[in-house]
Amino acid sequence: MSDRRFLGLLGIALVVSTVLTGITFNVKEEERVRFLASTMPSAVQCEEQATRTYSFEFMVTRELPDVRILCGLLIKRASIPGEIPWGVDGLQRKALITHLLEELDDLADGSPFYRVYEVQEDSGTKLEILDFGDFLAAMGGKDLLRTCDTLYAEEEDRSGNVSFYRGVRDFFFNSERTLLEVKYSSPGESRVFRSESLGTQAEGYPPISDAPLDGIWLRNLVAGDRVRVEVKANTQNMPYWRLLGEIPFCHEGIIRLVVVETGQGTAGIRTDRVE
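User: That's the sequence. What structure does it adopt?
Assistant: Structure tokens below.
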């Protein structure tokens, strides 16, 4: 196949995929993990100096030889009031997106290059999330996940208002500047990664750049085992949204995505928010 044509189509799909609808799957499988607790910080004003902690915890409900935990962050990019209809132009754009993704499927020779998740939140809000992370990491290495957006989402609330999000497969935006610490623990394994900005507190710990963007892998979990992930961010180093130039965004309108996978497929999805 033509690599140039393939990458060109992928670029188009990434640009327009924020309005993707209608090609999703529901995660409906026998329970294998149960989310127990989650913390999200309150909103932070632009350029405010503060330390914020994100965490989540889940319990395994039956024996699982292999578990992979994927983390991502998305931020709101645009909103459309429910009273504004999509119209003919919007329907044409959705048809174009579907066609482009079908062409990419053909060019990828049957290998999956994106995942689409559908999430129904307790508030009634529906989220459709498109994840290109594994495909792009396979093409350019996992470090590529730090340099480009790999997550896209469309949200529709109970009033019909639509919002679009984009983001990264990482523990936070621009993680090597922003994160102070990433740690995870299970009965059989515990790891801590710390920023060099912590000085002596970081001695003896692997750097933030070594934190596993391609997923936290855990082995041989049994029913009742608990897994916890905790992330600390320094908001003084809040990133700049590159599409808008050197303009810092506020620490709000953020969705954290957690996906737990096993050898039998997706076992759990959780979304949490900083409003």
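Helices lie at 3-16, 87-107, 133-140, 175-178.
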